[in-house]
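Section 5.1 Outputs to date
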Amino acid sequence: MEVKTSLLDNMIGVGDMVLLEPLSEDSFIENLRKRFDHNEIYTYIGSVVISMNPYRSLPIFTPEKVEEYRNRNFYELSPHIYALADEAYRSLRDQDKDQCILITGESGAGKTEASKLVMSYVAAVCGKGQEVNKVKEQLLQSNPVLEAFGNAKTVRNDNSSRFGKYMDIEFDFKGDPLGGVISNYLLEKSRVVKQPRGERNFHVFYQLLSGASDDTLKKLKLDRDFSKYNYLSLDSAVVNGLDDAANFRTVRNAMQIVGFMEDEVQSVLELVAAVLKLGDIEFKPESRCNGTDESRIKDKNDLKEMCELLGIEQSVLERAFSYRTVEARLEKVSTTLNVAQAYYARDALAKNLYSRLFSWLVTRINESIKAQTKARHKVMGVLDIYGFEIFEDNSFEQFIINYCNEKLQQIFIELTLREEQEEYVREGIEWTNIEYFNNAIICDLIENHQNGILAMLDEECLRPGTVTDETFLDKLNTICAEHQHFESRLSKNSKFLTDHSLPHNCFRIQHYAGKVLYRAEGFVDKNNDLLYRDLSQAMYKANHSLIKQLFPEGNPAKVNLKRPPTAGFQFRASVGTLMKNLQTKNPNYIRCIKPNDKKASHIFTDSLVCHQVRYLGLMENVRVRRAGYAFRQAYEPCLERYKMLCKRTWPHWRGPAREGVEVLMADLPVPAEEFSYGRSKIFIRNPRTLFFLEERRRQCLQDLATLIQKIYRGWKCRSHFLLLKKSQIVVAAWYRRYAQEKKYQKIKSATTVVQSYTRGWQARKLLRELKYQKRCEEAVTTISAFWHGTQARRELRTLKEEARRKHAVAVIWAYWQGLKVRREYRKFFRANAGKKIYDFTIQRIMQKYFLGLKSTMPSVSPIDKSWPANPYRFLDGVHTELRRIFHLWRCKKYRSQFTEEKKAVYEEKLEASEIFKDKKALYPSSVSQPFKGDYLEISKNPKYQKLHSAVDEKVLLADVVNKINRANGKGTARIFLLTKKSVVLADQKTGQVKASVPLPDLASVSVSTQSDGFFALRLKEGSASAVKGDFLLSSDHLIEIITKLHRTGATAADSEQLDIDISDEFLLQFKHDKVCVKFIQGAPKNGNSVSCKRKNNRLLEVSVPTTA
């Protein structure tokens, strides 16, 4: 029987704040502290999850935990983020309700990690399958890419999201993911050009410089030294626990999984490098003759490298940094930029370039992860957005972020109340109106279309004349002075005139989270977010494909004189769209809290947590939840938990669960006004009532445990006694048997001993007789042996003496003969005797060497690599030179036998070796195959007579190839003809010419490195043959076709050298689309044949069987 636990079992503190008694801010924070100290980082407020950032890894996110919370009731186990994720997923799958998970909290509270945990849990519990796993992997791998480009290290968080992200994950009717759509909000692009002290720029800059290979950095014209780039802060360039090099590899792998092609990844890296280079461009002042100041670039090397990366003419960008053109109707005015304006233009370009690149990345990821089917989908939204921010210096970014949090707080209160009211109506419980603070008045102060702060800021930005931050603040002081949530030193409200904590150039807003002081400086510029038209047009002139997409307004043919919408207007519109989207879904809330500012584990700062509890409105949320009934539970689990409190329901209740609960509650001393019966749940008004039930249950469980122990101990003692009694009988029986067996063994042993002694005496007597007889025989043999040995030794001594005498005579004779020879020798040789002997010895050795070489000479075949070993070390040089001369001689002799045709064939084979050797796996198998050229015998075959007459030139090669269909990857048979001037493709059955491509129109030929027969004819852009796009063909004679194409192109007078591109991934132009052809190795299928399959609109995948 499965044992189920409950939220109320083994509880540390209170797992659900709704049950906290007494309820106060101090008791609320003390409960959080107690649970945090015991590693309980999750706490409920009804269906809301409070998440405390532990700043360390905890063993509560394992696969076992996922299975533990899978398909379990929300309150069945201890609080966990998995419980909320499971509840949302099952509501979406089983009840067909669209869900949204709202994750809020300030920077460093763990919002990004919470969103990852939700997505990983949903990915783990939903269906399996190749396509489903691919979609899940793409959705999960989109996170590292967006984190690299959108997250940065701040003083509060080492991986702070500097943009808002909302992801809609789409599911089918079974609950399997189909895809997703990501929306991003307000990237903090000002961080690109300037970071506060102790903070870093976006991660991708440091990851690129730390993790890219030296080759990649050289192509991007970058150096690993962070100090060489003005846009990178140095005081926090290296972060403890953050491996930028490993993260860069993770991002590259994630981009590949999501679906980025290699050229797209390279383009993105080039733009990142360009932003870094842009920050190193510096300006110097220069006076003109008319007295005006203008700016000039100090060192043009960085500008040159940036222009080379982006494909922009250096003079065009240099002019855009020096001049500004203003158009008004039919009039153009060009003015020079001073140094300050030039730096402003440079930074504006860097911010726009990076923010537009980020938006393009989000769009590109959406293209890859979007659902392919158009049927209705179920949707789960995950919102990970910046939390409420209160810094020492708050500017436009903090104002916009806090406005977004005001809207989220408003929808949180509305949806919480609506959910509570809907449950009461659904259960038939009377609804009680709840008093709460409505922050709509603060939202109206900011977003009102007439008198709102954003509307006045837009009005100032669009107003002609001098517009500054001071004029904007004056307007606020005039219009918002009487608003109860707006404060300023210059407003008409006299109570702030002596408030020295409120500077003159600032204003203060009373948000739901507390008062925030905003510095008006920079509001107008950041809201305008202007990029000079000259810079947009310069960017559009770039040869870089991605740059043109990012700056469409730079197209001279589409000049728009209308002022672009302001940043505030765009953000207000996007927040409005987000709120409408959230209101259509069932909300689930995760409130993230950080326990301390030191990013350290085991530290709980009461004041910081209290501040977050206040601005997140958690106490208000508890009061809203407790305003009606503090606790509610379905009848079945309620009866199962408390049935032991009533004799009529214990141990089993046979009727309906509701009747059992009614009988149970009637038997308990609980006032009737403390609970109500709904249609499917019982509602308990006061937590004290619940704790009373829990205390009674605990006492009953103790009594039951005592009864069970008593019965068990009695049964155990009786069983033990019966076992002892049975054992005694068995032991006695075995002992008697053992005693008789032992007595028998003694008698048997004594008999055996007597027998053995008798037999031993008889055996020893016989042995003595045998030994005496043997000793007599051995004595005779020994005496005979000694006698024969004596005789042999005497004979040996005689023979040795005779041999020594003979040897002495021979030695004396040899010495006498040597003496005579030496005397004769001295007469004929004197001083040069040594040299003559040396020369004679060398001559004899050389003679012996050449005679030996003659007898061991190898064959005259040029491929025979054998050669006799060198017997003399001083002849090494001669030996090597003779081997080389012999090889040259036999090669010359072998070549003299060639005819002109055979020589041409070998020249083609040699050229094929230069092109494909060690580059193409198919090449070794083609070496032994002769190049035939005309495989179809087109001039003799009457079937191709019409085709032969249609071709004027001599046919160098004729073969049947397969033309690959770009729509489905299947092949169609075509006749391939190669002449000295063109390539012809004709129908195999009719012989009709389908395409004729002049050789000068061929740009290059692409093949893979593997053992397939695929090759692509890539045509020059703009040529007449390139209208339908490039050709992808396959042939059994690939090596011969490419070799003849290369030779023919090289010998033609009017064509350039044909490029051969050998790569496993290349791009082809099919009409208006570029398609990537990718070769992969796969398991053998369909008889080990190569298969081509179209994966998506941009990818043809060729699977080549793995060779053994």
